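Hello again, I could really use a second opinion on something today. I've been staring at a protein lately and its backbone has me curious. You're getting the sequence in one-letter code plus the fold written as tokens. I'd be grateful if you could look everything over and explain what you see. No rush at all, and the record is pasted right below:
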Amino acid sequence: METNATNTTAEAAQLTNALERRLDLAVAIADLDREIDQRLKRLGKTMKMPGFRPGKVPANIVRQQYGDQARHEALNEALERAFGETAKAQQLRVAGYPNIEPKKSDSTTHIEFSAVFEVYPEIRLGELNDVEIERPVLEVGAAEMESTLAVLRKQRVRYEPVDRAAAKGDRATIDFLGKKDGVPFQGGQANDYPFVLGEGAMLADFENAVIGLKAGEEKTFEMTFPADYSAKDLAGQAVSFAITVKEVREAILPEVDAEFAKTLGVEDGDVVKMHAEIETNLKREVKKRLQDKVKDQVMDALLKANPIDVPNALVDMEIQRLMQAARQDMEQRGGVKMKDFPMQREWFVDQAKRRVSLGLILSEIVKVKELHAKADQIKSIVEEAAQSYEHPEEVIRWYYAQPQRLSEIEGVAIENNVVAWALSSARVVDKAVAFDELMGQKS
């Protein structure tokens, strides 16, 4: 069937935003009727109905049963073809799906429609010559190894009872009752509550009141909640607490010996081997975190150098993807009860806009600068990632067993190429970064 399509707004008029366009479409009634008849004839050849042999149902009954369905399908197909042909003729890169609505018309030969849609933005890549990008640098040495060992030891700490006053670093178990204006308040009471002094589990004034007390001792004290406290009804309010210390335990860190090495997966307890493995893993992790920080710097620079309008349709689709991913993550963490958690679209708008913008900009850079991933790059990334597993060769085989599994790795390789290109184009300033800051550890 040949469908007539016209565009009465040849200049693709701008509507509510810079990327929105409108096309006027027209479907010839005669062509539509022919297509409907052909569909009904095809249906009639296979239609079964009591009292008639298969394929012998009268045409008027076929039309009565399936006429609306045939018309709906034929019209949708005609509109889809008309829109596609017109958009292609005008070289419009359509983003998302058009919203097609019927128009009032006096025509006796055509049914007219209006299609509103968005197009991809035209991207003219900005220069990075005058852009400064900070590149964080850090060499793993003895201090970083010592800090990492301290963390690993702390993760395996045990607490033993002591008959002395509680001090910072001890784990105290207490009963407490809080009152505001002489009345207990919600969340201000607990029995046999354990926490480590100095780790920030409780407010500083509360912890300071516990420090210096021995098991069996009691104390009542006044304190004021911070003005920005999360519980609004208590923010900035003066309260009193009565506490009883039930137990004080001091932290016993494991010695760096064969037993400690075994807890880290070194089966023979070889401490030298343990240090070598820790150093290898630490250098790998530091390298990854430095690369991630550089990539964030580059992405920020690219967004600043290439301001673009983004199609709302693409942002909406990205918001849906982010919401679905967040819901799945919450379900995995909190169980089935979290599947109906009421998410707000607004939580994801900024992240979705950033992701869509970067996706469009990176796509243009890769095309213009020919930064596509190469096979050897993909192989190198897979092999490096596999080294953190006990049997890296199995991980490598798993990736290459199904080519589609490499798509994510290909994306990483492309991002690496873009980062390398950006660093070669911009002014790069190396900046030392503190180990604790890089690793997200508390000082």
Notes: The chain has three domains: 20-119, 132-140+267-439, 158-252. The chain has a mean pLDDT of 91.
